Amino acid sequence: MEVVILPDARSIGSLAADAIGALLQRNPDAVLGLATGSSPLAIYDELAARCAAGTMSFARARGFTLDEYVGLPADHPERYRTVIDTVFVNRVDFAPGAVQGPDGLAADIPAACAAYEAAIAAAGGVDLQILGIGTDGHIGFNEPGSSLASRTRIKTLTRQTRIDNARFFGDDLDAVPTHCLTQGLGTIMSARHIVLVAAGRGKAEAVHHMAEGAVTAMWPASILQHHPHVTVLLDGAAASRLQLIDYYREAYESKPPWQGI
Ligand code: GLP
Q1: How confident is the model at residue 257 (pLDDT cuts 50, 70, 90)?
Q2: pTM (2 d.p.)
Q3: pLDDT for the residue 43
């Protein structure tokens, strides 16, 4: 796991966009894993800017979102499908239908989850997965206690996650759905490169457990320690509880300039 500590969200967005740009140069048909949440917004802003400037194109790329609330109506503004369209997909040049997400309105949820896994596999798997992290260490919506080998399935949201996300529902906890569909930890681990972004002191404990704690279902993101290519992009506040912070800084500063993340 490579940990990179950067001054601000803009630098995080820029470095992640560099990695995505290099991937699209190598493989214009690349498959991206897309996360919602506030953390990746700087990445999407930078990608949209580069696309508008004509230096990057998603015309042949495909995307798969991580997770979705169960039961939110199709026109609900907080449906993750709507959110990802607004913050990213509609701002770049993806072909129609190139980005898919789990169907939180499916009548047969197990079948929808299996179909989603099959669609990712049929696309050849995810080349680069963008991730945020919850304050309880969840990735996607894999809450503490999730199987470390899980695939896409329905999950019950923890009270803490619903409290964290109530800000998107007018601070009304009762308006936050109780269930979601999420790619499993096993699904996420199948991506070839994982870029996790976190900012702010509220994420510092989760980031510490993810990178430096024991691998445990109690901190689901800690499974990423078993992945061969994870890049963690942090601001100083999110990095503030890391025991090896000086080492991470030295390692990144001494990297050859031609070597990307
Ligand atoms: C939600 C999403 C996660 C996201 C997390 C953190 O629970 N399901 O994918 O990583 O929130 O969000 P934020 O980046 O807004 O703190």
Answers
A1: confident
A2: 0.96
A3: 98
Q: Does ligand 1 lie within 6 Å of residue 141's CB atom?
A: yes
Strand residue runs (E) in the chain = 2-6, 31-34, 62-65, 67-69, 99-100, 128-131, 153-156, 179-182, 193-198, 230-235
Task: Report pLDDT digits (tens) over 69-109.
Answer: 999 999 999 999 999 999 999 999 999 999 999 999 999 99
Question: Residues 142, 155: contact at Cβ < 8 Å?
Answer: yes
The CB density around residue 25, as the number of other CB atoms within 10 Å, is 10
143 is an active site residue: yes
The two three-digit tokens of residue 158, written as one number: 């923890």
State whether the beta carbon of 31 lies less than 6 angstroms from ligand 1. Answer: no
Active site residue 18: no
Quote the ligand 1 centre to 49 CA distance (angstroms).
Answer: 23
- Alpha-carbon gap, residue 32 to 103, rounded angstroms: 18
